[in-house]
Amino acid sequence: MNSITVEGHTIGEGHAPFIISEVSCNHNGSLERAFEIIEASAKAGAHSVKFQTYTAETMTLNINEGDFAITDEGSLWKGYSLYNLYEEAYTPWEWHQALFEKVRSLGMVPLSTPFDATAVDFLEEECAPEIYKIASFENTDIPLIEKVARTGKPIIISTGMASIEELDETVAAARAAGCKDLILLKCTSSYPSTAKQANISTMADLRERYGVQVGLSDHTLSNTTAIAATALGATVIEKHVMMKRSEGGHDSAFSLEPHELEELVTETKSAWESLGAPSYGVTCQKEEESVKHRRSLYIAADIKKGDIFTAQNVRAIRPGLGLPPKHYHNILGKPAMCDLKMGTAMKMEHFA
Questions:
Q1: How many C-beta atoms lie closer than 10 Å to residue 19's C-beta?
Q2: Residue 67 per-residue DSSP state
Q3: Does the global pTM surpass 0.85?
Q4: Is the pLDDT of residue 283 over 90?
Q5: Cα distance between residue 44 and residue 256, in whole Å
Q6: What is the C-alpha R_g of the chain?
Q7: Which residues contact 78 (CB under 8 A, 6 or more apart)?
Q8: Which of 21, 125, 210, 349 is 20 to 30 A (C-alpha) from 269?
Q9: 81 has which bridge partners?
């Protein structure tokens, strides 16, 4: 699994997780609000900001009943038709170029999720992204995946509800169409989702099964799942972000605020740093200094030359400047080679 470099940022092993701040519809119809989220994401330390490229017409039909009405109990979007929801939530295409430029100006990677072939063509012509994202609900849209793969750009795909058989088809299609760099994100398509629903151990299976980098598209409201995913080898973490959840919006129930995004960046980096490599013995300067505080053998009572070492006059205590305690039983019963005061660190020359 090779590292991937996009716009100066490296994604892969040996690097802290690549954090994607997902704007989605959290601009609530305001370009200025979208800019605020981008600026807040940069300040928080995110590596990338992601948008979604679609219109209501490219997503569904303008029908407000039957299959096209959202009636699921508990859904954030119950009562909407699919068309009306996407009509409210979409990011105007005329904003995209300015959004991409803003992200790049702040040293981050802009990317988007195209939802149909026209969106791919638009992004290629107007925004020149260096990486693409396929949403979990579109990961079985083989023609779309092939279209994106033919750009030759790296692709991130959320697994969502896909079965192993469906993922086999998706990965095979992407590779056959020219995708050389593929990242799969474990994703639970529940909005919001809980930590118990995350099943992030799936990442290890995805890595082994497909030989790809893995990560997490996280719809929980805490950073716990993302930190755990980092410990399991996630190289990418994606989270929805908005300025204030209290302002509401279609994605507000599973979006982080800027200070929480900053915590995500800091905590996942710390989790990644803590992994390190297999290591034994002294590993840092502080441990080097601490060695002297181990236990070692000391004279516990004044003794004269020729006296026998016993459990009463030799003890294993701190600090660690004498012989290691492993010599204790070998010393007992032997005569002292010289006078020794209580508090003397034992040396090999003290006994025969």
A1: 25
A2: G
A3: yes
A4: no
A5: 11
A6: 30
A7: 70, 71, 72
A8: 210
A9: 69
List phi, psi (to 5°) of 60: -160, -170
Residues, the chain = 352
Peptide bond into 143 cis (omega under 30): no
**Half-sphere exposure at residue 89, Cβ-oriented, CA atoms within 13 angstroms:** 24
Backbone angles phi, psi at 252, to 5 degrees: -65, -30
Closest CA to 114 of 27, 52, 62, 63: 52
Distance (Å, whole) CA 39 – CA 109: 13
Q: Which domains does the chain have, with CATH numbers?
A: 13-54+90-275 (3.20.20.70), 285-350 (3.90.1210.10)
Task: Give yes or no for a contact between 266 and 311, defined as CB atoms under 8 angstroms apart.
Answer: no
**Pair of tokens at residue 15:** 């690097």
Residues 6+ apart with CB under 8 A from 50: 20, 21, 22, 23, 24, 110, 111, 112, 113, 133, 238
